[in-house]
Amino acid sequence: MLKSFSSDISIEQWHKHLQTLNIRGVVALLQSDLPDFQKQINFLPISGKDDLKPETIISNQHSKVHHYLGGENAVVFFDTTKDFDANQFAAISGSLIGGGILILIVNQNSMSLIEQYGSHKIRTAQKVPSGSILFYRLLKKLIEYQCLSVYQNNILYSPEIYSENNITQSPEADRYSQQKTVIEQIIRVAKGHANRPLVLTANRGRGKSAALGLACANMIESDKQIDKQIIVTAPLKTNLEVFYYHLLQQTEHLLTADKTKSNQLCYQSGSRITYMPIDEIILKQPACHLLIIDEAAAIPTQQLEKVSQIYNRLVFSTTVHGYEGNGKGFEIRFKKRLLSIKPQTRFASMTHPIRWSELDQLEKASFDALLLNCELTEVKTASKLLDKNKVRFELVDKKLLLCDEDKLKTIFSLLVNAHYQTRPNDLKRLLEDKNVSLFVAMLNEQIVGVCMLNREGNLNSDDINAIYQSKKRLKGELLPQSIIAHSGFKQAGKLTFQRVVRIAVHPALQNLQIGSWLLTEVESYCHNNKTDFIGTSFAVSEDVLHFWLKNQFSSIRFATSKDSATGAHTIEMCKPLNKDSEALLKTLTKRFNQAFLYKLKGELQNLDNPSILAIVRHQLNDNPHEITDYDSAELHAFCEQQRSLSMIEDILILTTTNYLIDLVLKNDKITDTSTIEFVIDWSLKQFDKNALIEKHKLTGKKALDEQFRNLTRQILLISSNKR
Q1: How far apart are CA 217 and CA 243, in angstroms?
Q2: What are the residues whose beta carbons fall under 8 Å from the beta carbon of 39, sequence distance 6 or more?
C-alpha cells in the first residue's frame, strides 16, 4: 500500500533515529489510532527538559498563534480533521525540538491522499480530494522530503531512511559558533558606545532567544558587584520562556532570597531584569542599561520607532520568515526607519540551527510547502519612463497556478515583499477561496505586479438585518458589512464589491505607474462583471494613501481600532462603478467628512498630518464659512492687538477650519508647511496651548499669540482676494 515507506520499524527504533540525528519526526494518523499511539510514546524518553510537556493544538484556535513564539515543545498533537490553520502549523512546527514528535491527526480524505502520494501514484497529479489544497501540498512536501511517517492499525510506516541500517550520527560541527558571536555583540550594545542598537534576525530554532538569555546571564555573572537594570519585552511574556530558561540556568544562584518581585528577577548585586509590555515602557519610560525586544516583528512598528527614539541601548530580535505574519515587513520597512533614527545600527543574523540538526527535513518541507522561503526574482530596472503598451495584464487561472510552481512563487513573493502581514493563511486563501481572484502585470513575460481581489456583497436580507442589529458578523465581507454595521446603510448589502486585498509591484519597477495601470485593468474587469464598487482597506501611511487617492478612491471610514502590526489607523476606501454606487458613495463621504473632523480631536489625533492634508484636499470641499463684516472687523482688531485670542478664538477657529479646507489646502494658497502643520494641530486636532508651544518649538505664550496673528493676516488676505 505505502511503497515508499518501510513497515519494518518499531516506534522505539524510529524515535531512536530521531534522537540520534537530533531531527523531528512527523506522524500522520486517524483519530481512531491516536489513543494507541499516544500510549506507546508515553514510554519514550522524549525530552531531557521536565517542562516540555505535550501540547495539543486544535487547528482553528487562531488566537493562540503568538503563544508559541519563542517557546519549545517536545510533542505536539495537531488536529487537521476539520480545518488546517497554516499560521499555526508554521508557528508550532518551529517550536518543536530535535528528537520531538509532531502528530498530525488527519481525516480519511487526507489519509487516502497520503496513501496515494506514498505509492507514487499522485506525485504529479493535478486533481486532489475535497479539503484544504494547502494541507495536501504540505503532505506532498513532507513525503517528498522523507520526513512523514504513517501510523495505521498499530503499525508505523516510515520512509526507508528511518530503517536501522540507515541510522547514522549527525556530523559534528560547532553549532554554537554563531550564537557565541551574537552573545558578544549583545553585550557590546550594553557596554560599548551608545546609540548603536543591534538587530538580530534568524529563522526558528537558531537560538536567538537563548542568546539573549545567555548574554544577560553573562552580564549578571561578570558584573556581580555592579547594579545593572535590564528591561525585556515581547508581544507576550510567554514568548520569553526560552530566554528565561537559559538566563536562570546560569544565574539562579545569584538571585536574592525572595528571588522575584512582580515581573522582576532581583539579584544580590542590586541588578534587575524586568519584563514590561512595550506600551507600558513607552508610557513610563523607565531608565535601564539595556532594552531587549524579542519577537520584534510581531510588535507594531510605530511602537518600535518610539522606543528607538527614547532609548540609546537596544537589541531587536525577530524571526525573518512569515510564521507570525510581519517578519518580512520588519526586514523591509522597520530596518530602514531605524537607520534614519540610529544611523550606526548594527545587524546580525543566525543561520545555523541549534534546536535541531541541519539534517532535519521538517523545516525544509514546511518552508517549501508554505512558501516561507520564497524570494523575489531579479528584474531589469526600467528607465524612468515606461510604455504601458509593453506591459501585459492578465487574470490568473488559479487551477493552472497549482501546477505552475514558479508562477506561484513569483506571485506570493511579491505579496510577501509588499505587505507586512502576508501570512501562510494568505497562501491558503489565495489557493482555496473561490471569492479570491488574481490579476498580474507582466513585463517581458515576467510577472512584475500582482493584485489580489476578494468578491464581497450580494447578501441575503436575513444576514443584512442581523449585521445591522449587531447580531452577526460574516467572514470575508469586510466592506459591505462595515457600511451596514457602522454607517447604517442596509442597501450596501445588496450591492457587489471587489475589495483589493493586496496590490504589489516589484521594488525595482515601482513609481513607473505599473500599479495604477494594473488597478485600471482591474476596474475594467469589475465594471464588465457588473460590480458596483471596487474598494480597499489598509493601515494608513502617507505613500499608500497617496496611491489610492491618486486613483480616485474616496475615504468612507476609519476603523475604531488600530492595525495590530503597525499601530496605524486603518482606513476603508471605495470607488463607484455605476450610478447606484455613486449615489451611495456621496452619502458615505458626507458622513465620513463629518466624523473625520470630529474624530481628529480625539481618536484620530495622532494621525500623521500629511495624511490628514491628503484627505482634506481630496474630499473635504464643502462650502466654507463666509466671513461677515463683523468677523472681519474683529479679526483685524486681533491683528492690531486690540483683541486677545480668547475674545475672537471661536471666530478664528471656524474661519480657519473652513478656509483651510476651501482655500489654504485645496488651492495651495499657503505653501509654508510649518503654517499648515500649525493649522492642522490647532484648528483640526485642537491641541491645547502648551502642546502647540512644545510641538512647534515656540518660546512661550507671546510667540504663540504672534503665530495666531500671522495666521489671521493670511486668512484675511485670502478672504479679501476671494471677494
Answers
A1: 10
A2: none
What letter represents residue 99's amino acid? G
- Which DSSP symbol is given to 345? -
More confident residue, 366 or 168: 366
CA distance 520 to 415: 19
Please report the pLDDT score of residue 331 as a whole number.
Answer: 63
Given a cut of 80, whether residue 687 has pLDDT beyond it is: yes
What is the CA 51 to chain-centroid distance, rounded? Answer: 31
| Buried-state track 69-79, b at ≥16 Cβ within 10 A, e below 16 | bbbbbbbbbbb
Residue 161, CA distances (Å) to 145, 168, 346, 609 in order = 11, 10, 42, 61
| E strand map for 4-140 | 5-6, 25-30, 55-58, 73-79, 96-106
**Confidence label for 617 from pLDDT (cuts 50, 70 and 90):** confident
Q: By C-alpha distance, which of 98, 57, 58 is closest to 74?
A: 98
How far apart, in Å, do the first and last CA atoms of the chain sit? 90
pTM score? 0.82
Give the residues across from 231 on adjacent strands: 274, 291
How far apart are alpha carbons 346 and 87 in whole angstroms? 30
d(C-alpha 216, C-alpha 709), whole Å: 56
Average pLDDT over residues 642-655: 89
